[in-house]
Structure formats: structure tokens, C-alpha cells
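Sequence only, no structure available. Ideas?
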Amino acid sequence: QVQLVESGGGLVQAGESLTLSCILSGRAFSNHAMGWFLQAPGKEREFVAAIGWTGWNTHYADSVNGRFFISRDNPRNTVFLQMNSLKPEDTAVYYCASGRRSTLSDDTTQITGYDYWGQGTQVTVTS
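Reply:
I predicted one. C-alpha cells follow.
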């Protein structure tokens, strides 16, 4: 049974930082790209960041590029999302996902590029 468990969400003020973690079990972590998505109230789930299986290749949404950083620790089956200079508009539930492929590809920014999802962790940024 494949499971992803996110942690690290919380309530912060604008300008502060948070680091989210996600642990994968039930499949070979290092065989899959990993991604983070967010979903704000009343909106569709949208891409935030992704990382290939080696950790060398990453891709970010324009809205977070330069503020958020994705990384992974393969021996610990964990992917991280370091979020800096947080803004109120970053408020959302953040989901990690395990990719269908090991490398970044055309569907990296799409929900269809991932086949397992975590339950989400809430991030709230106040002004």
C-alpha cells in the first residue's frame, strides 16, 4: 500500500518561512519524480514544484520561483519544500505526490503526471 504523509504546515506571518516534508512508503522512492501542489479554497489544485529522481533537476511554478525550493533525501524516502518569503496568497492546502515517471517530463506540472497523493497539510499566511 502506497502512502504519502505530509507534515510541517502551520500558521505564519507574511515574510516568514516554513518547510514541508513528505514521506513515501510502499514504493521505491528513488524510482519516481516527486511533486508539490497546492489547493486554495474554491480553486483547482495547481502545480508548485517538482524534482526528478536524482534531485538534480527541478521545476517551479512562476509564482514561487526564487522563493520556494524543493529537495529530496532518497535514503529517507522524503521530499521537502522549503518556502521562504511567504505571502498571504500562498495560503492553501499543500499536497505532495509521487510521479508516474522517474524524470521530469511534459506532464510534470499536471495532476495526471502523478499517481499517488498525500492527504495534504494546511499552510496559512497572515498579513
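The mean pLDDT is 97.
Hope that gets you unstuck.
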